[in-house]
Amino acid sequence: MKARVHISLKNGVLDPQGKAISNSLHGLGFESVLDVRQGKTIELDLTDMSKETAETEIDKMCQQLLANTVIENYSIELID
Amino acid sequence: MKASVIVFPGSNCDRDLKVALAASMDAEPDMVWHGDSELPETDLIAIPGGFSYGDYLRCGAMAANSPVMREVVKKAQNGTPVVAICNGFQIATETGMLPGALLRNADQSFVCKDVDLLVTSENNRFVGSFKQGQVVRFPIAHHDGNYFADQETLDELEGEGQIAFKYATQSGELTEDANPNGSLGNIAGIYNKAGNVLGLMPHPERLISDALGGTDGKSFFDNLVNSIA
């Protein structure tokens, strides 16, 4: 089973990289961009297990290591 | 007195910290490998600065989960003094020993210079002879030193006198210009609630002799050692 974990900074937490990307996009003429937030994606390759078990397991991984819940949100996407 | 310096792969200030501590103590500190699951008998634990595990994932995230840190957290909970500098500060927040987190510097750039710091805590057990309101000068060198915590935590830190140092002007004013990284409240260093864990972004170990440009760092370690010995 494969899974993706998406991690992004919480709203209200300053994201200087997102700001820099936003400025660059404006420089290229993409005026439609109102704001940019940069995050990261972590791909996991897991042994076969039920979706429920996988979600519980990955949630634990996020809490313990993959995300810093003081400043980051995360979401889990399971891919068959 | 015995001290332990934790050694992580990638850290580059562990030996500076050892030299600084040895100059203020009458013994060399033990260098403890991150993979060890036990700490030697120790009166002080020092967590050094410098890109542990290459800053992969998040600064301090991997180091915070290394075997030796489980012991460090346990000792800290039992009252052993811990000083955590720069990447060490990031590691200490990642373990939960200190509240908040260190974000990328607000202007995106790596900063490396000497800064002035206002001593802000009156019950600063580690910096005994530094007086509240005094300005000291330490170097900084970091990319992720932008201290962040939610408002409730910030209020608690202020209310409980847990803020040790704030970035300031030479005359001690807390201006935006004096803040090198965007830290909330100009925060450069904090204590935990019990007062035995100090985390700070500046590097006192880099200013321990006139030959290096100053001695405020030497005073810092002298005070630290005197407060424990």
TrEMBL record, chain A:
Its main location: cytoplasm. Pfam families: PurS. Pathway: Purine metabolism; IMP biosynthesis via de novo pathway; 5-amino-1-(5-phospho-D-ribosyl)imidazole from N(2)-formyl-N(1)-(5-phospho-D-ribosyl)glycinamide: step 1/2. It is found in: Cytoplasm. Keywords: ATP-binding, Cytoplasm, Ligase, Nucleotide-binding, Purine biosynthesis. It catalyses: N(2)-formyl-N(1)-(5-phospho-beta-D-ribosyl)glycinamide + L-glutamine + ATP + H2O = 2-formamido-N(1)-(5-O-phospho-beta-D-ribosyl)acetamidine + L-glutamate + ADP + phosphate + H(+). It comes from the Bacteria. PANTHER family: PHOSPHORIBOSYLFORMYLGLYCINAMIDINE SYNTHASE SUBUNIT PURS (PTHR34696). Part of the phosphoribosylformylglycinamidine synthase complex involved in the purines biosynthetic pathway. Catalyzes the ATP-dependent conversion of formylglycinamide ribonucleotide (FGAR) and glutamine to yield formylglycinamidine ribonucleotide (FGAM) and glutamate. The FGAM synthase complex is composed of three subunits. PurQ produces an ammonia molecule by converting glutamine to glutamate. PurL transfers the ammonia molecule to FGAR to form FGAM in an ATP-dependent manner. Belongs to the PurS family. Part of the FGAM synthase complex composed of 1 PurL, 1 PurQ and 2 PurS subunits. This is Phosphoribosylformylglycinamidine synthase subunit PurS. It comes from Sneathiella marina. The lineage of its organism: Bacteria, Pseudomonadati, Pseudomonadota, Alphaproteobacteria, Sneathiellales. The gene is purS.
UniProtKB/TrEMBL annotation, chain B:
It comes from the Bacteria. It is found in: Cytoplasm. The keyword Signal does not apply. Gene3D superfamilies: 3.40.50.880. Its main location: cytoplasm. Keywords: ATP-binding, Cytoplasm, Glutamine amidotransferase, Hydrolase, Ligase, Nucleotide-binding, Purine biosynthesis. The active site is at residues 86, 203, 205. It holds the Pfam family GATase_5. Pathway: Purine metabolism; IMP biosynthesis via de novo pathway; 5-amino-1-(5-phospho-D-ribosyl)imidazole from N(2)-formyl-N(1)-(5-phospho-D-ribosyl)glycinamide: step 1/2. It catalyses: L-glutamine + H2O = L-glutamate + NH4(+); N(2)-formyl-N(1)-(5-phospho-beta-D-ribosyl)glycinamide + L-glutamine + ATP + H2O = 2-formamido-N(1)-(5-O-phospho-beta-D-ribosyl)acetamidine + L-glutamate + ADP + phosphate + H(+). CDD domains: GATase1_FGAR_AT. SUPFAM superfamilies: Class I glutamine amidotransferase-like. Its EC number is 6.3.5.3, 3.5.1.2. The keyword Disulfide bond does not apply. Part of the FGAM synthase complex composed of 1 PurL, 1 PurQ and 2 PurS subunits. Part of the phosphoribosylformylglycinamidine synthase complex involved in the purines biosynthetic pathway. Catalyzes the ATP-dependent conversion of formylglycinamide ribonucleotide (FGAR) and glutamine to yield formylglycinamidine ribonucleotide (FGAM) and glutamate. The FGAM synthase complex is composed of three subunits. PurQ produces an ammonia molecule by converting glutamine to glutamate. PurL transfers the ammonia molecule to FGAR to form FGAM in an ATP-dependent manner. This is Phosphoribosylformylglycinamidine synthase subunit PurQ. The lineage of its organism: Bacteria, Pseudomonadati, Pseudomonadota, Alphaproteobacteria, Sneathiellales.
